[in-house]
Amino acid sequence: MPLGIRIFLVYFLFVGLAGWFVLSTVMDEIRPGVRQSTEETLVDTANLLAELLSDDLRAGRLQQSSWQSLFQAYGQRQPQAQIGEVSKLAVNHRIYVTDATGKVLLDSSGRAVGEDYSRWNDVYLTLRGEYGARSSREVADDPESSVMYVAAPIKDQGRIIGVVSVSKPSRTLQPYIERSQQRLASFGAGLIALGLLIGGVLSWWLSAALRRLTAYARAVSAGERVSPPALRGGELGQLATALEQMRRELEGKAYVERYVHTLTHELKSPLAAIRGAAELLEGEMPEGQRQRFVSNIQNESARLQQLIERLLHLAQVEQRQGLEERVAIPLHDVLDELSQAQAARIQGAGVQVENQVAVGLQLLGERFLLRQALSNLLDNALDFTSPGGVLRWSAEVDCEQLQLCLFNTGEAIPDYALLRLTERFYSLPRPKTGRKSTGLGLNFVQEVVHLHGGALQVGNVPGGVEVRVRLPAVC
């Protein structure tokens, strides 16, 4: 799936869920918001009526007054009001008045005069000096028949002598609620559509920029000399600049010089082995040992010739997509060969090399590259192993993966250097000479290990330093 479509789908999901959540939340808040606003007006109305009715109730002439006829006339009024898009053709308030015991004295509907309303919450709570309100259904099974009641106390010098309650059916609020919900839904859908349109344009723009960068990278890989795409500012512009800089670094002298250093580094180990063997041959030694060093010289000479031929092709290691061969390599034997090749150096430093790898273990990969990588690890460990120290090879197999460990006694690697050990040309001073190497050994090892689908790890352990290499094993 193209990146632009994936970005758009993620954006669509995010905007859609966010829009749905906001709209759903606001929709759910409209109904209680309208009811609360209506309740506030009922509170004001009830308190106004409480003041108007107080004198007649205090004097005991409320039932003989004209309030009942006034309430009935109020109920018959037709406002003919146009509130927004809703027409209001009738008044909907019901008003009733009780005495201090909760007995209904007046009722605008005429239904409840003489009844005991002291158990209804609006009257009961108000008579106790609390805020009295309730919501009751006119039809028990119909939630739309709910009616809101709000009461206010009628007082005589601070003493509650009665209650006036004002009610309003919830169904009269429904047109305003539905109108607000419809308008909000239309507005929200428009905002979501606009957001998705912006997301589509953004995804298209990003995809177009990435396509131009991809075409540029492919042209550079094909050897064409092309200019980087002109992308205005931001990370994409920085990426185009970085690609152009990378192209320049890969061309010409810098590329060739890098592998000249690699060639020089790879020739050091066999030359050192030959020189060490030659120096030992100058002294007196048993004939069998002399023959062994002569054989080492011959083997390393042949290895030099092989190195010269093969290292000319190692410039392609980083570019290779796979191995030229995958053969079973006896790990124990290879490590013994490497130790014998470095015998003179090992003997001269008084280092004890222990090969604890089981004889039957085998690696799967390209023999030449793996041998060179292990040789680099051994050479590097010898540089940092203290005189008279121990260098130990060990290995274990787990799920078709072989973990090879190389431990050597020596000083711990500084924390600042641990993450840079495999950087090209980065090197630490050798304890014996204080000089740095070319810094290509561990970098070469890492390239070979990655090419085999493995991993390289270098770290400090109690007593020294340990290198761990995970490589494919032969089951």
Main attributes of the structure:
single chain; 475 residues; Heat Shock Protein 90; five-stranded antiparallel sheet; five-stranded mixed sheet; 14 strands
Q: What structural class do the secondary elements suggest?
A: alpha+beta
Strand content: 15-25%
Helix content: 40-55%
Give me the CATH architecture of the largest domain, please: 2-Layer Sandwich
Low-confidence stretches: none
How do the SSEs run, as a string of H and E? HHEEEEHEEEHHHHEHHEEHEEHHEE
Please identify the top-level CATH class of the largest domain: Alpha Beta
Can you say what the CATH homologous superfamily of the largest domain is? Answer: Histidine kinase-like ATPase, C-terminal domain
Description:
Strand 11 and strand 12 (401-409) form a beta hairpin. The chain folds into two domains: 3-178, 2-Layer Sandwich (Beta-Lactamase); 252-472, Histidine kinase-like ATPase, C-terminal domain (Heat Shock Protein 90). It has 475 residues and is an alpha+beta fold. The chain is built from twelve helices and 14 strands.
Question: What's the SSE blueprint?
Answer:
Blueprint: H1 3-59, H2 67-75, E1 81-83, E2 86-88, E3 94-99, E4 104-107, H3 121-127, E5 133-137, E6 146-156, E7 159-169, H4 174-221, H5 234-250, H6 252-281, H7 287-311, E8 327-330, H8 331-341, H9 343-349, E9 352-355, E10 362-365, H10 367-384, E11 390-398, E12 401-409, H11 415-418, H12 441-451, E13 455-461, E14 464-472
Task: Give a short overview.
The chain has helices at residues 3-59, 67-75, 121-127, 174-221, 234-250, 252-281, 287-311, 331-341, 343-349, 367-384, 415-418, 441-451, and strands spanning 81-83, 86-88, 94-99, 104-107, 133-137, 146-156, 159-169, 327-330, 352-355, 362-365, 390-398, 401-409, 455-461, 464-472. By secondary structure, the chain is an alpha+beta fold.
